[in-house]
Specification:
It is built from 9 helices and 6 strands; from the N terminus they run βαααααβαβαβαββα. The chain has 217 residues and is of the alpha/beta class. Helix 8 links the parallel strand 4 and strand 5. The structure holds 1,6-di-O-phosphono-beta-D-glucopyranose and magnesium ion. The site of 1,6-di-O-phosphono-beta-D-glucopyranose (B16) has 20 residues, from helix 3.
Length: 217
Amino acid sequence: KTKGFIFDLDGVIVDTAKYHFLAWKNLANSLGFDFTETQNEQLKGVSRVESLKKILAWGETTVSDEKFQDLMALKNTEYLEYINKMNNSEILPDVPRVLDYLIAKNQGVSLGSASKNARVILEKVNLLNKFKTIVDGNDVTKAKPDPEVFLNAAKSLNINPEDCVVFEDSVAGVQAANTANMISIGIGSKDVLHEADYVFNDFTEISDAFVEALITK
Ligand code: B16
Ligand code: MG
């Protein structure tokens, strides 16, 4: 049977949260306030627009619509400087093993990310060719926890949502997968991702046998 396996990007395939952090922190500092790692955690899976809204609120700062757009562009320019230096050494452990296993078993493999930079990141780490389809921040109107991104990914694979599995590191992403009626696999801590059907710290804990069971289930 062919099932759909949808991967989130940031926090699942690569750890780009650290680059988002550096770029947002510089932006916040330039506006005269600080931005902490704890706050950065709360931006996981959150779109760029919503992230900036939250950061400005934390800094008790309001800006004009025009300035808001400028700030978004500024942040992304700096973020892309970090992204452009990425290579395949930044792929999280055992992600390629699981991807290759799924491909060898002729499963549908798709990306479902909130990032508008998803393609360039996959290109940088040399994983673009592993994905049959890519649904990213340029293709959706509603952010996670809305299931739109994963439902679009299922559609792009021509596979029913009930036959899809989602790998996610964010609470909003797990909720989106659950709402879409997909199997949710949390990548991270059990305490945070308790709404997921399964939780693993990382892909080294996901055996081929477990993946095989998901395929045949
Ligand atoms: P960009 P994911 C999300 O990616 C990140 O987790 C989140 O921190 C970021 O703000 C969002 O992408 C938008 O990214 O600025 O590149 O469009 O986890 O859904 O792959
Ligand atoms: Mg993520």
